[in-house]
Structures are given as C-alpha cells and as structure tokens.
Amino acid sequence: QVELVESGGGLVQAGGALRLSCSASGGIFSSYAVGWFRQAPGKEREFVASINKSGSSTYYADSVKGRFTISRDNDKTPVYLQMNGLKLEDTAVYYCAASRSLSDRYHYTGERSYDVWGQGTQVTVSS
Known about the structure:
Elements: E1 3-7, E2 10-13, E3 18-25, E4 33-39, E5 46-51, E6 58-60, E7 68-72, E8 79-83, E9 92-99, E10 116-117, E11 121-126
Parallel strand pairs: 2-11
Antiparallel strand pairs: 1-3, 3-8, 4-5, 4-9, 5-6, 7-8, 9-10, 9-11
C-alpha cells in the first residue's frame, strides 16, 4: 500500500495559480487511480478531480472544470493538480487519495471509493 504526501499549497491572490503535487512511496503508483478532494472550513469534504491508473482519462467537478487540470506522467512522478484562475471559494485543505481496486473505465467521486489518503495541504486564496 502506498503512502501519499501532498505539497504545493500556500497563499495566493485571486486569479493566481498553484500546482499541487501528490507523491507516493511504498508501492507502484501507476497501479492506483487518484482523486483530489478538498474541505473548506465548516463544510463537507468534496470531490475536485480524478485520474485513472493509466492517465488516459480525467474527470472534474463542475466548480473547477476549465480551471484545474489533473495529470500524471509515469510511476516515478507525482500526480499533479494545476490550479489556475483561483477564486476565494477555492480556499480549502486539499487532499489526494488513491485506490488500486478501481476500474480504469470509470471515475469515482465518492470518498469511500478511495482507501489511501494523504494528510492534506492548505490552499488559501486572498482578495
């Protein structure tokens, strides 16, 4: 089972950009589908984006579509979440999650689909 570590969070002005990284150790990362989730203060954790094991397919929440891009290159590199055009409402703790058991044919937006989670990285968007 891999262990996940997120990085790249920080403070950015509205309209700016950040790139989050989800790094894995202890396993073959390309065997895992990966999702990004976020949790804002006082709110439920919500799905942001996902990418299948091969990297051939991605899926986004409507709130980030066209602004965020999830990507992966190979087993040796992190899964990235490029966030452009950041808005105040994007402020949250961002988590990456992974699972080996998910089909490559579908995308999974529910937290329970993923069984490995990172500790999260804070993203704060200021006006």
